[in-house]
UniProtKB/TrEMBL annotation:
Keywords: Acyltransferase, Membrane, Transferase, Transmembrane, Transmembrane helix. The lineage of its organism: Eukaryota, Viridiplantae, Streptophyta, Embryophyta, Tracheophyta. It catalyses: a very-long-chain acyl-CoA + malonyl-CoA + H(+) = a very-long-chain 3-oxoacyl-CoA + CO2 + CoA. PANTHER family: 3-KETOACYL-COA SYNTHASE. Its main location: membrane. It comes from Cannabis sativa. Belongs to the thiolase-like superfamily. Chalcone/stilbene synthases family. This is 3-ketoacyl-CoA synthase.
Length: 525
């Protein structure tokens, strides 16, 4: 071996091969890492460090006081009794106002994710064969769907509704109702069983489903099924896309601030049966390849007694709406194609629009969650860039300092790839999103709960950990919810990963292709 760390190996044929074993120089990156970490700790504890000398001086002064000094202080207070009483009254009044006006803590007692029966699984070959046998798709469309599936990040065990397993498919109103009932009731039955909460005790019900809004509503179906009380506050959110689950949480949170001592149930789902596209427009074929059966039910409480058994506390909800912009408004759009067939069209500008919405959302969320060290670095970088007209890149805050876990909406492999890159996350941070997409597909607004269930099933959720749920939806919207774990969270019974968590993570790496936006209606793909 020479001084450069190289060795010469002689093979059986007498050929000498020079092998280099020089390790990369990590010194600069390691130093930078620890400098940044030390800076973070210094700034985050700056207030405490400033108070330490003050406390130290106060203790020294107090230790030098004798009985005469204490007697003099007592006489001084007696002569100023009126002032003391007035100050005390103001302090008590202010404390009372603070206690009465502060937001009530919202606890997540438990949640449940629906898992469809095995006979509804749709492996790639079966999916493509059924698409061919329907006779609705030409060869170009079939080839396009095959390529989308290969690059989508979906696995072989996702589920499609019962009606889509028939040839020809049977997308009737009755079949759509049956799908909704199976998903919603399946999730709710499991939730009530795990929490031992009686349906009669539910005071608030919020249901969100974008594309299936029958009369009576989905919320009314739940009220009828579980015989909920007559004065329940029920809401049905429609047409709000994959981010509607966070919107429903936000609505339930606001209602729980008003109505004391009650439970709220949030049901998030999407209905595929009547929204399958049977045409040949490429931009409208993509949802067929990505969206799959799924749903969740979440139990929230504002009761103080539930803190002991609750899994999480809701910390923040931040909502961003870009609907005022025409491109953003139409980037996810339900319409009819030239043949009169209805479907949801995805624009090629969707990733750029989603990036703009994300930027606005994290600009609002950042000051609420980031440590002061990250905020100062961002502000200083921005100031230097503005004042000096510098070409330096803007500083991207390190959200890994604010959150321990990330639940990114599993809208597709491209969405997860872009957020991993732009937020500078590690592979473990997006593992839950990739595995939820692989195992269950894009389950719309409920996908973030399958991801949270994955983190719990892996045993990674510790007390005090913070979780960032982020979702995108039509309109165009980007919404975030931040939760704090109140205990070392264990997976609930009959969870979606209960019998398969040991198989994950699986390798889903593919050549980097923009999965959702690779179409061109004038070409095959």
């Amino acid at each position: 071996m020479d001084s450069g760390g190289a060795t010469q190996v002689t093979t059986a044929g007498g050929v000498q091969i020079r092998q280099t074993r020089r390790l990369p120089d990590f010194l600069q990156s390691v130093n930078l890492k620890y400098v940044k970490l030390g800076y973070h700790y210094l700034i985050s504890n700056l207030l405490t460090l400033c108070f330490i000398p003050l406390i130290f001086v106060t203790l020294i002064e107090a230790s030098q006081m004798d009985l005469g000094d204490l007697r003099h202080l007592w006489l001084h207070l007696q002569y100023n009794l009126v002032s003391v009483i007035i100050c005390s009254a103001f302090m008590v009044f202010g404390f009372t106002v603070y206690i009465m006006s502060r937001p009530r803590p919202i606890y997540l007692v438990d949640y449940s994710c629906y898992r469809a029966p095995d006979h509804l699984k749709a492996p790639y070959n079966r999916f493509l064969e059924h698409s061919r046998l329907t006779g609705d798709f030409d060869e170009s469309s079939l080839e396009f769907q095959r390529k989308i599936l290969e690059r989508s990040g979906l696995g072989e065990e996702t589920y499609v509704p019962e009606a889509m397993h028939f040839i020809p498919p049977r997308p009737s109103m009755a079949a759509a109702r049956e799908e909704a009932e199976q998903v919603m009731y399946g999730a709710l039955d499991n939730l009530f069983a795990n929490t031992n909460v009686k349906p009669k005790n539910i005071g608030i019900l919020v249901v969100n489903c974008s594309l299936f809004n029958p009369t009576p509503s989905l919320s009314a179906m739940i009220v009828n099924k579980y015989k909920l009380r007559g004065n329940i506050r029920s809401f049905n959110l429609g047409g709000m896309g994959c981010s509607a689950g966070v919107i429903a949480i936000d609505l339930a949170k606001d209602l729980l601030q008003v109505h004391r001592n009650t439970y709220a149930v949030v049901v998030s789902t999407e209905n595929i049966t009547q929204n399958w596209y049977f045409g040949n427009k490429k931009s409208m074929l993509i949802p067929n390849c990505l969206f799959r059966v799924g749903g969740s039910a979440v139990l929230l409480s504002n009761k103080s007694v539930d803190r002991r058994r609750a899994k999480y506390r809701l910390v923040h909800v931040v909502r961003t709406h870009r609907g005022a912009d025409d491109k953003a408004f139409r980037c996810v759009y339900q319409e009819q194609d030239d043949a009169g067939k209805t479907g949801v069209s995805l624009s090629k500008d969707l990733m750029a629009i989603a990036g703009g919405a994300l930027k606005t959302n994290i600009t609002t969320l950042g000051p609420l969650v980031l440590p002061i060290s990250e905020q100062l670095l961002f502000f200083v970088t921005l100031l230097v860039k503005k004042l000096l007209n510098s070409s330096m890149k803007p500083y991207i805050p390190d959200f890994k300092l604010a959150f321990d876990h990330f639940c990114i909406h599993a809208g597709g492999r491209a969405v997860i790839d872009e957020l991993e890159k732009n937020l500078q996350l590690l592979s473990i941070h997006v593992e839950a999103s990739r595995m939820a997409l692989h195992r269950f597909g894009n389950t719309s607004s409920s996908s973030i709960w399958y991801e949270l269930a994955y983190i719990e099933a892996k045993g990674r959720m510790r007390k005090g950990n913070r979780v960032w749920q982020i979702a995108f939806g039509s309109g165009f919207k980007c919404n975030s919810a931040v939760w704090e774990a109140l205990q070392r969270v264990k997976p609930s019974r009959n969870g979606p990963w209960e019998d398969c968590i040991d198989k994950y993570p699986v390798k889903t790496e593919l050549p980097l292709v923009t999965t959702i936006f690779c179409y061109n209606d004038k070409k095959n793909y």
